[in-house]
Design goal:
Layout lengths: L3 H18 L9 E10 L2 E9 L10 E7 L5 E3 L4 E2 L6 E3 L5 E5 L2 E10 L5 E8 L7 E2 L6 E2 L8 E4 L5 E5 L4 E6 L6 E8 L3 H4 L17 E10 L2 E8 L5 E7 L7 E7 L12 E5 L2 E8 L11 E7 L29 E2 L2 E2 L1 E3 L2 E5 L3 E5 L6 E8 L7 E7 L5 E7 L6 E7 L9 E6 L7 E9 L8 E8 L8 H6 L2 E2 L11 E2 L5 E6 L6 E5 L2 E4 L1 E2 L4 E5 L6 E9 L2 E3 L6 E4 L2 E8 L17 E9 L4 E9 L13 E5 L8 H4 L3 H10 L7 E5 L15 H7 L3 H17 L9 E6 L1 H10 L8 E5 L11 H4 L4 H7 L2 E7 L6 H10 L5 E5 L6 H11 L7
Parallel strand pairs: 48-49, 48-50, 50-51, 51-52, 52-53
Antiparallel strand pairs: 1-2, 2-3, 3-4, 3-5, 4-24, 6-8, 7-8, 8-9, 9-10, 9-11, 12-13, 13-14, 14-15, 16-17, 17-18, 18-19, 20-21, 21-22, 23-34, 25-28, 26-27, 28-33, 29-32, 29-34, 30-31, 30-33, 35-36, 36-37, 37-41, 38-39, 38-42, 40-41, 42-43, 42-45, 44-45, 46-47, 47-49
Length: about 850
């Protein structure tokens, strides 16, 4: 017979064991409710409302975002949206949903409106799924009714967006393409017994027992041409049910319960459903987090399979949750707030650091699942921490709280709760393969120990070498300012960056579109090594505590809509065509002139061939050469090495001597279409001021200043990327002024080639007689629509020469090669 103490100990053991296995609720650092799900670029994002601790009503003031790539480790991105985002809102930050369209993210929410003293639907917008978000229109999208809560949105296959919301009525509206205005009036879905298990609230009879009834929290979805409306049902307490339809606006047919009434610990529920990495997932909320309940809810998730006919099976709430669908590499910096399960800790945001783990006490822990150490054991464990008091220890255990001790990092006082230090300790036990790891925090009992920002393991293969080792087998980049040793390049085209910032808490290098975390040494130098880079020119930035800055070791180049660092990864002898050679050299001049069309002074860069100064009576043809979006008139001579390409081709008699003019295309600032406007019309306006400049000001100035041949047969224009688009918009309506046209990674955006530019291509014979040479080129690794444009033109009978740069993308090496191919065809006829 067991004693009471034995029974208690056994029960405690079972509770601890179950806790260590648990995956639900999936966030343990705060109370979350009303999940909404979005997949973007392979990552699953979860948007939740937030219950305040200790609430006796729905105390809710902000919305949170979490993400995962494996369904078990969730990264906390904080609260990028709150009531203070909306000047018109003052309370009740209840359920919402975020959706992406045309690269923008729209988060539909409900909140109490100060304008009408009722609930209202609002919409926030961001350029990233994690924000920052701002009020998109400065007022509610829909206002004036206490039933206006819990919006859900669906963009149908034809592009039409639908918004549903409501409690106890079901409202809907269609959205315009801008996603921030309504198309038509707000409508109401008629509730019937056939559609929802009961008629609407006003039509229900007290003495009739209905099979179910819609309550709130709709989730609109589409699968295999069937529309699903999931919702909380049955009144209080709520279960989850659904209806189906062949149309986004019904009529709906009630299909039954999905999650029946059960012990969830919460009298409300709210669901979302999504397929991710080949699996179907059902999100909902419970009150099962310690201290939780009906006003302290927590999101959970279950995996399920649809029935063969597309209907839902019965789904019950579990503590186990779902299995992983990915692994986590410990050899890159992992945010400490990436958590599979935790106990005792919380998270906090900071404008410089981002979100980090806080409220750490003795005995608290964080579990991270499916950590793949590979076949080589790490040797170093590193963590970024901060403590204003005595600190403590981070014990790293394998597979359980008391599992094999992998490392033990001592955390000292760092001088403040956000005064971060990156510390290292040896890995005491070799480990390979996939494991769960537990960060167990120890120290003085009762007091807060430290904050925890990120962690990483190192082994020989991923550790950065010493400076002496790096210098021994690398060379300084040619784009460095003289006297500076970094960045450096090795024979395999890895780039090494080194930057002194002893007081920084986090540094990254953003190079060629990928961010690399930098490691800090004892002297305050931060070092990073990139993946092998493609040969050619690449922009890069240093990101210091979230702020992108230019590396003072590098020459600066105007690109990415700002001054940037640059690194040239050298080609072999095949790149000699754009390098200076022992040949006569032309000049690149900076010319300032006054543009009447803009009532402003402007600058252009003008290349004159080497013989221009000595052959004083000769006149020359002119090529107008345009840069791309986010660059300026200096791009072709600094990043593109145009002058060297010209000199070398002229010296080898591969092209005729010519003048090359490079002006700003007025596209230095990023393309930002105005809200509510047609995207193609907005594209047409981007850089449109340049068309008057080149035709009315630039060409007359060049012809009046330089010895040019002024007829159309001796005038050409070409451009890269958006400059290619500008080239088409300039030349095609003005074939009386141009006879040679080139587009490098350029396309005709959103237009029909048969009808564009007043049908210039519709009479191919006439076009071919007027245009001596039409050239289009691109890289094999990009997708700017150039290939399809060439095919369309050739189908019409238009003569067009096409070139593909092997192995390159949307980058300067592609455009250097395109220029080399284009120039020999100019002014030969």
């Amino acid at each position: 017979m067991k004693t009471p103490l034995q029974i208690y100990c056994f029960a405690l053991f079972v509770m601890i064991t179950m806790g260590l296995r648990a995956q639900n609720p999936i966030v343990q650092t705060c109370y979350t409710a009303d999940p909404a799900i979005l997949e973007h670029d392979g990552t699953l994002y979860m948007y939740t409302s937030h219950d305040e601790k200790g609430a006796d009503f729905f105390w809710m003031y902000d919305w949170h975002v979490y993400s995962t790539r494996d369904m078990v480790n969730w990264t906390d991105h904080g609260a990028p949206l709150g009531l203070n985002t909306f000047a018109w809102a003052d309370d009740r930050a209840w359920a919402g949903q975020c959706i992406e369209r045309n690269g923008k993210f729209y988060w539909y929410i409900c909140a109490h409106s100060k304008l009408t003293d009722t609930m209202a639907i609002g919409v926030a917008i961001a350029d990233s799924p994690t924000g920052p978000f701002k009020d998109a229109i400065g007022k509610p999208l829909c206002d004036g009714d206490w039933a206006y809560i819990d919006p859900t949105v669906l963009i149908d296959d034809d592009g039409q967006a639908y918004l549903y919301w409501g409690n106890p009525n079901v409202f809907y509206a269609m959205l315009n393409d801008d996603m921030i205005s309504l198309k038509g009036e707000v409508g109401e879905i008629k509730q019937t017994v056939e559609g929802f298990g009961a008629p609407g609230p006003k039509d229900r009879k007290k003495d009739v027992k209905y099979k179910d009834n819609y309550t709130e929290g709709p989730w609109l979805d589409k699968r295999n041409n069937k529309y699903y409306l999931l919702y909380a049902a049955g009144g209080v307490p709520e279960h989850l049910a659904y209806s189906m339809s062949d149309s986004p606006l019904g009529p709906w047919k009630y299909m039954g319960e999905i999650m029946p009434l059960q012990d969830t610990g919460s009298f409300t529920n709210h669901c979302a459903v999504l397929d991710y990495k080949g699996n179907s997932y059902f999100f909902y909320h419970t009150g099962k987090l310690p201290g939780g309940g009906g006003f302290g809810r927590s999101v959970a998730v279950e995996q399920f399979e649809y029935n063969p006919d597309g209907t839902f099976p019965t789904i019950n709430a579990t503590r186990q949750g779902v299995e992983p669908v990915g692994i986590l590499s410990p050899y890159q910096w992992i945010e400490a707030e990436t958590i599979a399960f935790s106990e005792g800790v919380a998270t906090e945001p900071n404008a410089r650091t981002g979100v980090y783990v806080s409220d750490i006490h003795n005995g608290d822990y964080i579990k991270v699942r499916e950590v793949d150490f590979g076949t080589d054991s790490p040797t170093i464990f590193s963590a970024t921490v901060a403590s204003a008091l005595q600190g403590g220890h981070i014990e790293v255990h394998l597979d359980s709280i008391n599992g094999l001790l992998l490392a033990n990092l001592a955390v000292p006082t760092t001088g403040g709760w956000e005064n971060w230090q990156t510390l290292n300790t040896n890995v005491s036990t070799p480990v390979t393969g996939i494991h769960d790891i537990y960060f167990v925090f120890t120290g003085y009992k009762g007091c807060k120990l430290f904050n925890f920002d990120k962690w990483k393991f190192f082994n020989v293969s991923n550790a950065i070498e010493t400076e002496a080792e790096i210098k021994k087998r690398t060379q300084a980049a040619s784009t460095n300012i003289p006297g500076y040793d970094y960045p450096r390049l090795d024979s395999e085209r890895h780039a090494y960056f080194r930057f002194h910032a002893p007081n920084a808490t986090k540094l990254q290098v953003d190079c060629a579109g990928k961010k690399y975390d930098m490691q800090k040494d004892a002297e305050g130098f931060w070092v990073a090594k990139t993946d092998p880079l493609v040969v050619g020119f690449h922009y890069y930035f240093l990101i210091a505590d979230g702020i992108a800055v230019v590396d003072p070791s590098s020459y600066t180049f105007f690109g990415c809509c700002r001054m940037a660092g640059g690194i040239e990864v050298p080609e072999g002898a095949e790149g000699d065509y754009y390098r200076p050679q022992q040949v006569p050299h032309g000049q690149v001049r900076s010319c300032t002139y006054y543009a009447e069309s803009q009532q402003a002074f402007r600058r252009c860069m003008v290349y004159t061939p080497a013989e221009y100064e000595t052959n004083a009576k000769k006149r020359y043809p002119v090529l107008y050469l345009q840069h791309g979006m986010g660059e300026d008139e200096t791009g072709w001579s600094t990043q593109g090495f145009m002058q060297h390409i010209m000199d070398n081709l002229i010296a080898s008699d591969s092209c005729v001597p010519m003048i090359v003019v490079m002006e700003s295309g007025d596209v230095e600032a990023p393309f930002r279409p105005r809200l509510g406007k047609n995207i193609n019309e907005e594209r047409a306006l981007y850089g449109a001021s340049f068309y008057d400049v080149i035709l009315k000001d630039l060409i007359p100035m060049i012809d009046g200043t330089f010895r040019t041949k002024t007829d159309r047969k001796h005038r050409a224009m070409a451009g890269l990327s958006w400059g290619g688009c500008q080239t088409f918009n300039t030349t095609l309506p003005n074939l009386d002024k141009f006879s040679y046209i080139g587009g490098f990674s350029g396309a005709i955006f959103g237009l029909d080639v048969k009808t564009c530019h007043n049908g210039v291509f519709s009479d191919a014979d006439a076009f071919n007689k007027k245009v001596n040479y039409l050239f289009l080129g691109c890289g094999t690794d990009e997708n700017m629509g150039t290939q399809s444009l060439v095919a369309s033109l050739r189908d019409l009978g238009v003569n067009v020469d096409f070139y593909e740069s092997e192995g390159t993308g949307h980058e300067w090496l592609t455009w250097r090669r395109c220029l080399r191919e284009f120039l020999p065809h100019l002014f030969k006829n």
